[in-house]
Specification:
Layout lengths: L1 H14 L1 H11 L6 H26 L5 H26 L7 H17 L1 H6 L1 H5 L3 H32 L4 H26 L1
Helix pairs in contact: 1-8, 2-4, 2-8, 2-9, 3-5, 3-8, 4-5, 4-9
C-alpha cells in the first residue's frame, strides 16, 4: 500500500501544470538549493493533503464529494493566482529568505489542503479496509509527492543552468510562469463556477 501511495504522490507532483508553474519561477537559474524549494513546497503540500485526507476520511459518508471538490478547486485556483501574483511582484528571484521559505511552505500547504486532484488520488486510502493501509498509503503519497517536487525543482534549475540561459531568458521565465499561473488559476476558477 505504501508503494502505491508513493507512486501516486510522485505522479501527482509531476503531472500537475500548477506545480510546474508555481515552482519554475523559484527554480530557474538557481545555482544551489533548488531542491529545497521543492522539498519545502512538498512538505507543505503533504501536510495539507494529510489534513484534508483526515477530514475526508472522517466525513466521507456524510458529505457530497462533488460540492467539496468544487470549493477545493476554487481555493486552489486562488492559491495558484496568488502564487503567480507573488512571482510577478517579486521579479528578481534570489536565494530564499526566511519569509520566502515560509511562503513556499504555506502555498504548498494551501495547495495540499485544497487540491481536488490530490484528494481524488487518495481515494484508495479512503476505501481500503484497515487504518494501517490508510496510513501506509497516505504516508507514501506524501513522501512520493515531496521527493518528486524536490526533484522537479532541482531538474528545472539544472536544465536552466546547463542550457546556459541568458540573463534575459532567465528573467522572463519566472514572469511567464507567474503570468501562466494566474491564467491557469483563473481558468480553474471559472471552470469551478
Amino acid at each position: 500500500m505504501a508503494l502505491a501511495g508513493l507512486g501516486s504522490g510522485a505522479l501527482h507532483a509531476l503531472s500537475g501544470p500548477d506545480h510546474l508553474l508555481s515552482l519554475a519561477p523559484l527554480s530557474v537559474g538557481r545555482r544551489q538549493g533548488a531542491w529545497r524549494v521543492g522539498l519545502l513546497w512538498g512538505i507543505g503540500h503533504g501536510l495539507g493533503t494529510l489534513a484534508a485526507s483526515a477530514v475526508l476520511l472522517l466525513v466521507l459518508s456524510t458529505v457530497h464529494l462533488q460540492g467539496v471538490e468544487r470549493w477545493a478547486e476554487r481555493v486552489a485556483a486562488l492559491a495558484l493566482m496568488g502564487m503567480g501574483l507573488w512571482g510577478l511582484k517579486r521579479r528578481a528571484l534570489t536565494g530564499p529568505s526566511g519569509a520566502e521559505t515560509r511562503n513556499v511552505l504555506t502555498v504548498g500547504l494551501v495547495h495540499g489542503l485544497t487540491g481536488a486532484a490530490a484528494l481524488l488520488l487518495i481515494l484508495p486510502a479512503a476505501v481500503s479496509g484497515s487504518r494501517a493501509d490508510q496510513v501506509l498509503y497516505l504516508g507514501g503519497f506524501s513522501v512520493g509527492s515531496t521527493v518528486a517536487m524536490a526533484g522537479l525543482t532541482a531538474g528545472i534549475a539544472s536544465f536552466s543552468l546547463k542550457r546556459r540561459f541568458s540573463a534575459a531568458v532567465s528573467a522572463r521565465v519566472p514572469k511567464l510562469a507567474s503570468a501562466l499561473s494566474i491564467v491557469l488559476g483563473s481558468a480553474w476558477m471559472v471552470g469551478s463556477l
